[in-house]
Structure formats: structure tokens, C-alpha cells
Amino acid sequence: MNKILNRLLNKNTNKTLNLPHKKPTIMKRIFTLLLATASLITTAQERCGTEAHTKNLIKNNPEYAIARAKVNAQTEKWIKEHPNHSEKTIITIPVVVHVVWKTNTQNISVAQIESQIDVLNEDYRRTNIDKINTPNIWQGIAADSEIEFCLATVDPNGNATTGIERTQTTHGQFGMNSDIHTTSAGGADDWPNDDYLNIWVCNIQSGLLGYATPPSNWVGDGDGLVIGYQYFGRTGTVQSPYNKGRTATHEIGHWLNLDHVWGAWGNCGDDQVNDTPTQEQENYSCPGFPTNANSCSTTNANGDMFMNYMDYTNDACMNMFTNGQKTRMLSAINNYRENMLSHTLCSGSVGVSEMKSNTRKLIKVVDVLGRASTEKQTNTPLFYIYDDGSVEKKMIIE
Ligand code: ZN
Ligand code: CA
User: Fold this and answer.
1) 25 C-alpha vs ligand 2 centroid, how far in Å?
2) What is the C-alpha separation between 27 and 80, in angstroms, rounded?
3) Which of 137, 140, 258, 315 counts the most CB atoms within 10 A of its CB?
4) Which ligand gives the minimal distance to the CA of 276?
5) How far is the CA of 154 from the centre of ligand 1 (A)?
């Protein structure tokens, strides 16, 4: 109950007034709780709906509940068994963007969609220009996650595609139910969730920026991200302060099994990542460093990692994932989204090097002894030989 109370309080003190966190007195707590409860009914503000959506999925899908309950143990096991996961080649995730629109404004441009893909590639490869804003104390643990994104070039039927699918609708705002991923309900059906990252961009319910589905061995319909057209990309219809594409960066973090930095389901919780400091609760706006030092009964003078993509700060204030978060994401791909490790859905490529020189063709794959091998072979270093004379060494870890 305390956790719920804190979250409600936070909505009222931080979200609507945009004030830095302060500890309210008991009297004020009770008063603001009443206010917050009232305001929740009318104008709920939620940067991210993933926790609420996940709770709902767990409640309504027994298979998902069972599968999700196993995820943390499976993740820890994989990380222990794969200490050298970082030798892995770059993983490229094929994306389909379903633009579900009613007004012309909602039918966002190709440039806006491409700007989002650019943001994702920068943030997940740590080529974002604002990485210099990461405090020095955390520069050393800030990760190049070695994950990239491409708009799919091959659709589920094997035909060429732009990776962008546009669906006109008469539907009003979309909440967190199945409408958005159901064509007959005014949304757009999923592409196979094992093969593609489905992203729906739509007129989302007021106050919500987006939500995602965390992974498990049970992948259901609607797996992916839903994001409001005002928060997708960094040009076109985006609205400050969520106008730099970090909503999708954050939600894909969830899709790859990251929790908020203040922990799953509560304050001062555990996000299962060792190199993110324990954090009392979410941060909004753009705090100064350090913020909220020594919270949660810790002696952490550096305070909150509020510039982590898995906090709630403004887009312009976020700039990092940690190495621990990277490991957890790689584990999620290997355990639950393994089709992303090897596919031909983006210009026939599986990695960044191919994307940079996509005119060359793969001639053959050989092992260290020069014997012909298959691309699917795992846990073995392989040499990829191309028709332009280039050779690459890669290993798919399983
Ligand atoms: Zn979130
Ligand atoms: Ca942590």
C-alpha cells in the first residue's frame, strides 16, 4: 500500500507541478493522496504504461503469468553460463512500424519514422551526441549495447516492404487493450512477433506516452511497443519535452527485459542490474547531478542515475544504458527473441557491417579450420567471406 501511496503522491507532486522530489509531511500526504486519487480518474499522467499493461496481461493470460515468473531465474542462469557474451556480433532487430491514423497529422512522415530508427541506433550503440552529459563517475559503465535496428525490407510473405505499414482508422484514442493490434477493431494486426519488433504509432490515450511487452517464453499477440505519434522520432509531430525519440529507446528497454531503474513494481526496488544504483523512485524533468543521494538507506553519494534511459526524465536529459543493462538485454534476445540473432529481413543482412556495405554478397562461411559451415552454427567462431574480398569473424552465442 505504501508503494501505491508513494506513486500516487508522486503523480501529484512531481508530474503535474514538475517540482523536484520533496518529502511531504503526513498531513500533506493524506491531502495530496485524496487529490491524486481524484485527478487519476480524470487526467492520469503516465510516461510509461508498461507496468500497468504487464500486470493486466498477467491477470488475463495464465500462460504469460507462468512464463514471466520464470524470467529472472532464466536470465541469471544465462548470464552465468555466458560470461563472454560480449564477443557476440552486432545484433540487428528488424522493425515494422504500424502507423494507425485518423487525422493527417497522425499519419506521420517517413522522415519522422526514420528519425526514430536513427535515435535507436545512436542510443543502443552509444553514438548519441549527448553521451558527454553522462556524469564522469558513470562514463566507464555506460554501454555500447551492440544492438541495432532496421526497418524491415522483407514482409512476412517474403515480399519487399518499406517496414512501414499505414492503416487509416475511425478509432478514437487507443488505450492499453487489444484494439491497436487488431485490424477488425480499428488497429493493425501484428506481423509475426517472433520475427519482427512490432511498433504501433497511434493516437494514444491522453497522458500516456507509450508502453511495451516484456519478454518471456510465451509471446502473444500485441507483443511490441505502442507509442503516441507526438513522442515518436525527433522531427515532425513530436512535442517537447518528449521530442527526442527516447520513449521508444525506453520502451524497447522493457521489450528486452529491462525494468525501471527504481525497480519493478515498487520504490527502492531491484531492477536486477548491479551497476544501476538502487533508486527510490522515478525522476521527472531534468534534475542536476547528484540527485537524491543516500536514498533507500544507502550511502550512495552519486544519487540517482536519472539520465538512464529507464528513468522518466525528459528526453533531453537521458543518455545512457549501463553494461549490466546491456547484459540483461542480450540475455533477453538469446533466451526469448532468438530469431533476432539470425535473419534476412533487412536487406538480407544480420549485422551492421552488412548494412554499411550492402552491395556485397556473402560467398561462404567457414570455421577456423577452413571447413564450410552454416550461418546458423552457434558457439563457434566463424569467418564470413564476401565477394568484395572482405572477411568477418563472428560468433553467435547460445
Ligand atoms: Zn517504462
Ligand atoms: Ca540496480
Assistant:
1) 28
2) 48
3) 258
4) 2
5) 30
Q: What is the pLDDT of residues 236-252, one digit of tens each?
A: 999 999 999 999 999 99
Question: Ligand 1 centroid to 176 CA: how many Å?
Answer: 14
Note the pLDDT tens digit of each residue in 94-146: 999 999 999 999 999 999 999 999 999 999 999 999 999 999 999 999 999 99
| pLDDT tens-place string over residues 335-349 | 999 999 999 999 854
The lowest-confidence range among 12-16, 85-89, 245-249 is 12-16
Please tell me the distance between residue 259's alpha carbon and the centre of ligand 2 in angstroms. Answer: 9
**Which of the ligands is closest to the CA of residue 268?**
2
Distance 139 CA to ligand 2 centre (A): 16
The pLDDT value recorded for residue 370 is: 65
114 is catalytic: no
Q: Which ligand sits closest to the CA of 313?
A: 1
Given the residues 51, 148, 165, 251, the one annotated as active site: 251
User: How many Å lie between the centroid of ligand 1 and the Cα of residue 80?
Assistant: 26
Query: 3-state SS of the chain?
Result: CHHHHHHHHHHHHHHCCCCCCCCCCHHHHHHHHHHHHHHHHHHCCEEECHHHHHHHHHHHCHHHHHHHHCHHHHHHHHHHHCCCHHHCCCEEEEEEEEEEECCHHHCCCHHHHHHHHHHHHHHHHCCCHHHHHCCHHHHCCECCCCEEEEECCECCCCCECCCEEEEECCCCCECCCHHHHCHHHCCCCCCCCCCCEEEEEECECCCEEEEECCCCCCCCCCCCEEEECCCCCCCCCCCCCCCCCHHHHHHHHHHCCCCCCCCCCCCCCCCCCCCCCCCCCCCCCCCCCCECCCCCCCCCCCECCCCECCCCCCHHHCCECEHHHHHHHHHHHHHHCHHHHCCCCECCECCHHHHHCCCCCEEEEEECCCCECCCCCCCCCEEEEECCCCEEEECCCC
Ligand that comes closest to the CA of residue 310: 1
> In whole numbers, what is the pLDDT of the chain averaged over residues?
84
Q: Which three cell numbers stand for residue 393?
A: 569473424
